Amino acid sequence: MKDSHPHRKSKRQQGFSLIELLIASSIGLIITLGVLAVFANSTAASRMAEAQSRMNEDAQVALNLLSLEIKMAGHNPVNAAPNGLAIRSPMSPLTLHGCSGMFYFDATSVNDDKLRCETGVPNQAHALFVSYEADTKNTMPSAGIPTDCLGNKLTIKSGTYYVAENRYFVSSSQVISAPSLYCKGNGGLGTAQPMVENIEDLQFSYGTMSTPNPVTKRIAGYLSATEVEKLAASASKVDIAIAWAQVLTVQICIVVRSETKNLVSDNTSSIYTKCDGTQDTSQTDRRLRRAFTTTVALRNRLN
C-alpha cells in the first residue's frame, strides 16, 4: 500500500540548541551565586552576632566582678572611724587605692606594692587595690576559710579575722596572650591570674568629696588616681589613706574586644569610641571593640 502522504517526512527528536544551553547555564549560575551570597552574608551576620554577644557577656562579668569588690572596700563590721578608715589593727587603713597605670610589683616587698604605682608610662590601663575584712559570706569560702579574688585561702589576722587585699589590672602572659583582666590576691602564693579575657583597657575615675569628713557627703567632681593623690597633705601612708577616704564612688570603664580577627570589612569599620570619649582609628586587626561603663558607690563610705 502506498503512503497516502508521500511528502510527509519522518519526525525526529530535536535537542536544545547551543544558545538555549548557554542561557540555562547562565540562569543556573546566577541562582547558585545568589544562594552562595545569601549563605555568606548569613554566616558573616551570625559571626558578628556571636562576637557581640560574647563581648557583652565578658563586659558584664568584668564589671560585675569589679563592682562587687569596690562595694566591699573598707568593710570592717566591728570598728570604723568617722573618716572612713578601717581602724582594727593590723588591718591597713588603706582600703582603696588606684594607679593611673600599673602597680609597681616589687618581688622583695610584696606588702608595699599596693602603695606604689609605675610612673612615666603614658596611655596605660589603670590598676586598682581593694581591701576589706573577709568572711564566709562576702567571699567564696574554701573549707570554711575566707578567700581572696582567686579563691586562695586567707591567713587569719590576730587570731580573729581575715583581710582580703586584691589588686586588679590588665595584662597578658605567655600562656594567655590576649589582654585580660587579672587579679592578684594576698592568699596562697600571691600569684596573679587572669579573670576575664579580651579586656583591652581598664580606666577608673573617682567621685571625690571636696574636703575630708564633711557633714553632708557630696561628690565635688571626678578625679584620676594621680589627682586624688594630690589631695594628701603629705606622702605619708596615713595622709594618702585620708585622701583616698574622700572617694565616694568609682566610675569604671573597660574596653572589650572580639576574640577573633577580621570580623569587619575594613579598618574604618574597626573605629570605636574609647573610655575618654575620643575615637581610636589605629586598629588594623579588624576586630570589634566597645567601651562599657558603670558607676559604683562605696557603701562603707556612705554610712
What key phrases describe this protein's structure?
303 residues; alpha+beta; six-stranded antiparallel beta sheet; four-stranded antiparallel beta sheet; 4 helices
Q: Given the structure, what is the number of helices?
A: 4
What is the global morphology? elongated
The percent range for helix content is: 10-25%
Q: Over the alpha carbons, how many angstroms does the gyration radius reach?
A: 31 Å
Overall pLDDT level:
83
Oligomeric composition of the shown chains: single chain
Can you count the beta strands? 12
Largest sheet: 6 strands, antiparallel
| Helix and strand composition category | alpha+beta
Question: How many structural domains does the protein architecture include?
Answer: 1
Distance between the termini: 123 Å
Unreliable stretches (pLDDT < 50, length at least 5) are 80-87
Secondary-structure element order, N to C:
HEEEEEEEEHHEEEEH
Strand content: 15-25%
Task: Report on the architecture of this protein.
This protein is of the alpha+beta class. The chain has one domain (47-302). Helices cover 24% and strands 24% of the residues. The chain contains 4 helices and 12 strands. Strands 1, 2, 3, 4, 5 and 6 form a 6-stranded antiparallel β-sheet that branches. It has a 4-stranded antiparallel β-sheet with strand order 8-7-9-12. The chain has a two-stranded antiparallel ribbon with strand order 10-11. The longest helix has 55 residues, at 18-72. The radius of gyration is 31 Å and the shape is elongated.
